[in-house]
Amino acid sequence: MPNKLSPPAHDPSHEWGLAGIVADLRASREELHRTRHPLGIRELPSREAVVRIVNGLRSALFPTHYGAPDLTAESVDYYVGHTLESTLRLLHEQIRRALRFLPEYRESSDADLSGRAFEIAREFGHQLPAIRALLVSDIQAAFTGDPAAQHITEILLCYPGVWAMTHHRLAHALHRLGVPLLARFINEIAHSATGIDIHPGATIGPSFFIDHGTGVVIGETAIIGERVRVYQAVTLGAKSFPAGNDGVLVKGNARHPVVEDDVVIYAGATILGRVTIGHGSVIGGNVWLTHSVPPGSNVSQGKVREGSGGEAPDDGRGG
């Protein structure tokens, strides 16, 4: 009796017409809509690695809150050292990958690039105690400025503003050390988690408190002084975006606000352009501001009281 022929194996690529889709995608990728870096760089920083780096750094900075649960006075230093060693090794590799995107490193050998990345990672490590001091000042500002805050642990574990500022303090240090791509990566991870969008280039002084937080936007060239407090949906943005002769927006111009010490900016306020908010001023909720105000001003919708200070009539805090 003749053997029956087996039916042909199922071919999913034929069923979906994958050959045509793959060909069209190749044409889009290689000819029509190219997104690849001009130099064809394929080795990119890893989001997973960056998340691990931030988690490791956070654990090293605040081991009793984010580290191992069984730490003791005798074991905490070993834990911090072990965590930093593995985290800085991972950071070194991600810095090496990110440096390749900078014009000054495009012709560097792999050895030179790795050596420079190690120097940056080592310097960054030595800045961690100062970064921790800034973060503690932010945490203290949150505890002092929020009547709902019960204790420091609640702030460290629950406050999105502190979470965002942890990322920003780390990212800003890397930005200043010359690794802007990796710095932006770190802050965008916090942006996704908290809704707080801070460019790593923004300079923010100690004791900075973001209450509630959702929708806060702080631009690249913003400068914020000490003991500043902002609420949800505050924007420190640019008023205009000049373009060069090639139509590309000019990069790096100082185009965001300067906020001096002891300023309070309430919910929904929008401050645009390279304007200065004088120290001790209060900007009320939903104010749209495109000009500088002197120290001690109290700005509410449609009204500026110069030198008055005090609390704005509508703080929009919501508890």
UniProtKB/TrEMBL annotation:
One of its GO terms (biological process) is amino acid biosynthetic process. Residues 294-319 are annotated as: Disordered. Its EC number is 2.3.1.30. It catalyses: L-serine + acetyl-CoA = O-acetyl-L-serine + CoA. Transmembrane segments: none annotated. Residues 303-319 have a biased composition (Basic and acidic residues). It holds the Pfam family Hexapep. One of its GO terms (molecular function) is serine O-acetyltransferase activity. Keywords: Acyltransferase, Amino-acid biosynthesis, Transferase. CDD domains: LbH_SAT. Belongs to the transferase hexapeptide repeat family. This is serine O-acetyltransferase. It comes from Caballeronia glathei. The lineage of its organism: Bacteria, Pseudomonadati, Pseudomonadota, Betaproteobacteria, Burkholderiales.
